């Protein structure tokens, strides 16, 4: 079978075009691999979980009979120790959960919210 002479430049153009398309698509077009999409989905799910559970933590903190004293102690703690204070106080443990089952990210968000408001 005889291939026409102008086929080689056409094939080079197709190859280079495909590479350029892939580079533009993955870097600027929002394309991603399946594993990257899964990673983004996991991060989004965790952020959504924190956004839903942090207000519950704040409400549990506010219902505590010693809320004012606890808030004073929370404010006195260093910023990086505040989430541990919330976890140890049990406020980041969700209703129906067992002690020590709190989420560190929820406790951190809860501490941030509590540090910005009066109980």
What attributes does this structure have?
119 residues; mainly alpha; 5 helices; rod-shaped
H-E order = HHHHH
- The percent range for strand residues is under 5%
- Arithmetic mean pLDDT: 90
Helix content: over 70%
Which structural class matches the secondary elements? mainly alpha
- Show unreliable segments: none
Cα radius of gyration in angstroms: 27 Å
Count of individual beta strands: 0
Count helical runs. Answer: 5
- Shape descriptor: rod-shaped
Q: Quick summary of this structure?
A:
By secondary structure, the chain is mainly α.
Describe the protein's architecture and organization.
The chain has 119 residues and is an all-alpha fold. The protein has 5 helices and no strands. It has helices at 7-27, 34-63, 67-76, 79-89, 104-115. Helix 2 (34-63) packs across helix 5 (104-115) and helix 4 packs across helix 5. The protein starts with 6 loop residues before the first helix and ends with a helix.
Topology record:
Blueprint: H1 7-27, H2 34-63, H3 67-76, H4 79-89, H5 104-115
Helix pairs in contact: 2-5, 4-5
């Amino acid at each position: 079978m005889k291939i026409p002479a102008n086929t080689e430049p056409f094939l080079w153009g197709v190859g280079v075009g495909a590479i350029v398309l892939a580079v533009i698509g993955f870097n600027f077009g929002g394309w991603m691999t399946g594993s990257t999409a899964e990673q983004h989905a996991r991060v989004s799910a965790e952020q959504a979980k924190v956004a839903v559970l942090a207000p519950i933590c704040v409400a549990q903190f506010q219902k505590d009979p010693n809320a004012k004293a606890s808030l004073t102690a929370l404010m006195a703690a260093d910023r990086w120790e505040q989430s541990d204070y919330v976890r140890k106080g049990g406020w980041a443990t969700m209703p129906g959960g067992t002690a020590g089952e709190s989420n560190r990210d929820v406790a951190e968000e809860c501490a941030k919210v509590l540090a910005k408001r009066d109980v």
